[in-house]
Amino acid sequence: LASMNQYATYCLATGLLVSPALTDPNEASAFLMDLFRATNASPRWSSGKLDVIPWGDQQVVGNGATYFPNVTPLYDLTNDDFLLGGNDQPITSTRLPPNERLNIIKVEFLDRTNNYDPAVVDDKDQASIQQYGERPSDLRPTHFMCLAPTARLSAHLQLVRETIPNTYAFTLPAKFILIDVEDLV
């Protein structure tokens, strides 16, 4: 494992605290992907180690911790740095139409204030609902969260991620081989 200090500080400062109790068989990769999605982070392999990158891009102070995001780009790319793709364009983008984006995220958590019974919270993009109708997510179990405010924050951050419409793809020459997934350029 790489150092998890940045991820741990982010989770503590934001209040995205978890109490996992693995009582049923589940694939480790599925559990970890649910955990990272719920805590607004992404895993990556870097230099042969598992690393976790928080998606938070602003300073957060809370619970005795201060999270400082690393927003320094690894490279400052120019048009001359990109290789042309199959359509003779250096950068291609894929845009998810607004009427296909989720606008309601439903999260199930184990409510500590109610004998750890399952409870559901959601977050909604009311403007999108009014324009395109309801497009809810499947119920996302986050049984490692036990407090409603934590589950609500998780649902909100997941909804914000759903509103990112574009995905970009590009190819760089070999001199940029040190770039890892989730690195800023």
Structure description:
The protein is α+β, with helices and mostly antiparallel strands and 185 residues long. The mean pLDDT is 94. It has helices at residues 5-14, 28-38, 126-132, 148-162, and strands at residues 41-46, 49-54, 60-62, 65-67, 91-95, 104-111, 117-124, 140-141, 166-170. It starts with a helix and ends in a 15-residue tail after the last strand. The protein is globular, with a radius of gyration of 19 Å. A three-stranded mixed β-sheet has the order 7-6-8. Strands 1-2 form a two-stranded antiparallel sheet.
Poorly predicted sequence stretches spanning 5 or more consecutive residues:
none
Number of strands: 9
Q: Tell me the structural class.
A: alpha+beta
What does the main sheet amount to?
Answer: 3 strands, mixed
Mean pLDDT: 94
Secondary-structure map:
Elements lengths: L4 H10 L13 H11 L2 E6 L2 E6 L5 E3 L2 E3 L23 E5 L8 E8 L5 E8 L1 H7 L7 E2 L6 H15 L3 E5 L15
Parallel strand pairs: 6-8
Antiparallel strand pairs: 1-2, 3-4, 5-9, 6-7
